[in-house]
Amino acid sequence: MLGSFLPMKRYEELVARGRAEPSPLLAFDDEVVTASYNREPFLIGHRLTTHPLFSLAHLFALCRRMPRESILYRTGHIPGDADLDTSYDRYKANLTLEQVLDRFEDNHAYICINNPECDEEFAPVIEGLIGEVAARIDPLDPGISWYSTYIFISTRDSVTPYHMDREMNFLLQLQGRKTVHLWDPTDDAIMTSEEKDNLLAHIGGRPRYSAGIEARAMTYELTPGLGVHHPFIAPHRVHTASELSVSLALTFRTRRSDMWTDAHRFNARMRGLGLHPRPIGANALVDRTKCGIARLGQGMHRRLEAFHRHGIDQTA
Ligand SMILES: [Fe+2]
């Protein structure tokens, strides 16, 4: 699994670090964050554009020293409704990473660096950014439980196809321009309750794009120094402009989004039994109860598995 779980003690250290940061790299509008966090997208500012670590030369060096499985790439023109999960294999054109890096622009390439925070040179900066996010959202949504970051390097006119992730995100634009289309995850015309339950229960693929939702897109033009917040599981599609683009995604889950996830899994289970559960988000108390039952069920399942594997209950 990508990313890192964050024990509570480590989270509190990061919040303290974010609060004490004398020279923050992120700029939040407090009123906007309070009104919009996890409800709708909003812009933030950042100061990473002149940071030497994020120059193209440094990023290509990072690609060469990271474990090969951490670097995903594709080449050529990708349709906006392509399947994201299979796009890296499908649009690779049999090129090696070395070939892609050597002739990045000519190959019309797109690179995703998974978890640059695992690199000792990048770790302090990225942990500092997570600390700043944690410090800002702590009063609204305390307890980041997991985070994972990604650097995207794209040549001109590239597309990240329509998809949704199972977490929240702050996508920061470092070089070039990006147009980000986001859709409201609570709008039934975008994703039904059943699609969201299945998404979070990992049943089937992610909900697919349909042309009918295009007019409902919320569009954000990102230039270097700007970022946009993606609420929990908000669908999005991203286009770069006519120059090279570099962005950094800070994705994270919190104790509350973990609760939503487990409540969706409970609903998916109920649907599997032919029932029609109430949508998640309609009643917080009901959602917490569903989450509690789902976790109890998972715990029982693990114990039973261990019992069958070992013949005795070694989990007690
Ligand atoms: Fe995404």
From TrEMBL:
Chain ranges of the JmjC domain: 104-269
Top-level taxon of the source organism: Bacteria
InterPro entries: Cupin_8, JmjC_dom
Pfam family, one: Cupin_8
Signal peptide annotation: none
Protein name (Swiss-Prot/TrEMBL): Cupin-like protein
Organism (species): Luteibacter rhizovicinus
